[in-house]
Backbone:
């Protein structure tokens, strides 16, 4: 976590705040990496979820309580999610290679890359938000 905060979270004085790349690419990636590093801490990796199931048999007080663990690496942000992120990065890099060789327009590549980055952000935030706000 300290390593991620020191080397991957950009210092405000080092950013070009007038450049759109800061908001579109740098900040979402830095925040995502920092949140993921934060949830790698052993105390925060798993939450307990208590499910209470009530059975209406002869005795109305007949209930069972089950406990399940929801873990960050296994249940929230999985290896498949990381593979999608890596594949997206490779595709964006390939498209920019085509743009710099004059095959595609650079402007379209930037918009496409921005859409890919924000699609990843919305997808992963949608998966992570229930875990983050989960209380015991």
Residues:
């Amino acid at each position: 976590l300290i390593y991620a905060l020191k080397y991957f979270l950009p210092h405000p004085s080092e950013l070009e705040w007038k450049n759109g790349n800061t908001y579109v690419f740098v900040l979402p990636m830095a925040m995502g990496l920092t949140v993921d590093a934060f949830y790698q801490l052993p105390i925060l990796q798993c939450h307990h979820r208590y499910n209470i199931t009530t059975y209406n048999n002869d005795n109305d007080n007949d209930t069972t309580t089950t406990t399940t663990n929801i873990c960050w690496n296994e249940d929230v942000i999985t290896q498949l999610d990381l593979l999608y992120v890596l594949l997206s990065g490779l595709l964006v890099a390939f498209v920019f290679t085509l743009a710099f060789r004059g095959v595609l327009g650079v402007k379209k590549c930037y918009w496409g890359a921005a859409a890919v980055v924000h699609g990843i952000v919305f997808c992963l935030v949608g998966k992570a938000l229930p875990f983050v706000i989960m209380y015991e």
